Input
Amino acid sequence: MFKEVQKEGAEALLVTNPANIRYLSGFTSPEDAIVLILPRRAVLVTDGRYIAQAAEESSLEVKITRPWLEWVIKELDGKTLAIESEHMAIATFDELRTHLEVEPVRVSGLIEKQRLNKNDSELEFLKQAAEITDAAFSHILGFIEPGRQEIEIALELESFIRLAGATTSFEIIVASGPRTAMPHGLASQRVMESGELVTLDFGAKVSGYHADMTRTVSLGKPSNSHRAIYEEVLKTQLASLEAIASGVSCAHLDQLARSQFRQAGLADQFSHSLGHGVGLEIHEAPFLSANSSDMLDSGMVVTVEPGVYFPGDVGVRIEDLVAITNSGAEILSKSEKNLLEL
Output
């Protein structure tokens, strides 16, 4: 790691991105900490609230102090400091500059590059998260019915996930009827009705690692037009999964999905990218988008989530969590994808 810092023309790195702090140290309250990487050591710096927690969790040397700026300046002793420019508040940066002898070096992606390829332990956490997510989906199928509010579904999902020993990856999305046309339609008090589609986008988080899955189901028999839309989304999702392999361009996969939708006359309704990486952050590299320069590699974990949306009418999205392997891909999301009529 330090060699990468030196390549940037710096002699130390101040880590402020919470996901990177957790990755480096194992500390589970990274929002209240920093990591300072020096030539011969790396130090987790936090405050007195976390004395016991940091001692128990951190794989790095721990320093308890607040505020941390004075201690960092002293430790630098005139060294050139690199900062994570995408993860530092302007006020903090300005204060830091006034105390440094040398202008800080702005860097981006140094630790994120290390996080791209998951090791066996990370993959195990992601698989556990996906298993809990699948179990939550199986559970909720017996709970979804006309007359219930979307928020009831979200609360039941969260309760199940927490009782399984995990936390939720993000605020659960439950969108029914015309609200399914909202890709990020958070659960509301809307009462679900028979004949509608319902989109559920949620995931469990285990040891900091996120799962992410979307399923769209039908309350009773769907209309012919809604079923046809669903089948086109499923067709595109399956084709995208079939094309996934180490060495494949992320932009190519996104273009493949768009081509499938274009043939079906749905290209204009596909309003987001095909997917994204998942790990200690719910959205991280690689990004399966049209302008991405990322290439898939063994050990990466991504989502594949094509969707189409007709405002005021309906939306359909199907999303799986996928681990890239040397031989292709392992689909971690096991839940049924054929349209379920509840």
